[in-house]
Structures are given as structure tokens and as C-alpha cells.
Write a structure and sequence with these properties.
InterPro entries: EmrE-like, Small_drug/metabolite_transptr, Small_multidrug_res. It is a multi-pass membrane protein. Pfam families: Multi_Drug_Res (PF00893). The protein has 105 residues and is an all-alpha fold. The protein has one domain. The chain contains 4 helices and no strands. Helix 1 packs antiparallel against helix 2 and helix 1 packs across helix 3. The longest helix is centred in the middle third of the chain and has 24 residues.
Length: 105
């Protein structure tokens, strides 16, 4: 169950990272409220995952999911470049997340 909490925490991190873009420096009310809510959800789920997962592993996976999702969202939502180098780096992040999961068991 901890890995599910961690996955959901990472996805919520993507939500608040994207929300920051839409909140425009917290000048737009609805995106700002949704962003802050996503932050709370993300941290709450990370806290649940940390009940059983090692801190270093959980934090690295959480930020990796957030980074991966945010880069993909940037490409899809904000027309950020999808160069071969960027995609290769995304692959390295995925490999790192998978490696940490395998190392933990």
C-alpha cells in the first residue's frame, strides 16, 4: 500500500507543479487554491508512504515521479521541446525510479 501512496503523492506533485504555472505567481484565485490543495494532498500521501518506506528511497521516488510527470506535462500542455536529449534524460529518471523500487523490494 505504501507504494500506491507514493505513486499518488508523486502524481499530486505533478498537479501542484503544473498548478503553479496556471496560478501565475498566485495571482489567480482558483488555480492558486487548487495548487495549494494538491500540495497538501501530495505531502499527506508522502507522509503515509513514509510510515513503511525508507526516507531516502521514498523521497527520491516521489521527486522522480514529480519530475517525470512535470516534464511530460510541460511538453504536452506548454509546448516545451521534446528533444532527443530531454527524452533520454526522462528515460534515466524512469530507470532510477525503477532501480530504487527494485533495490527496496
Amino acid at each position: 500500500m505504501a507504494w500506491l501512496w507514493l505513486l499518488l503523492a508523486g502524481l499530486s506533485e505533478v498537479g501542484w507543479a503544473v498548478g503553479l504555472k496556471y496560478a501565475d505567481g498566485f495571482t489567480r484565485l482558483v488555480p492558486s487554491v487548487l495548487t495549494i490543495a494538491a500540495m497538501g494532498v501530495s505531502l499527506g500521501m508522502l507522509g503515509l508512504a513514509l510510515r513503511t518506506l525508507p526516507l531516502g528511497t521514498a523521497y527520491a521516488v516521489w521527486t522522480g515521479i514529480g519530475t517525470l510527470g512535470t516534464v511530460i506535462a510541460g511538453i504536452l500542455l506548454f509546448n516545451e521541446p521534446a528533444t532527443a536529449l530531454r527524452l533520454a534524460c526522462i528515460g534515466l529518471i524512469v530507470a532510477g525510479i525503477a532501480g530504487l523500487k527494485l533495490a527496496h523490494g
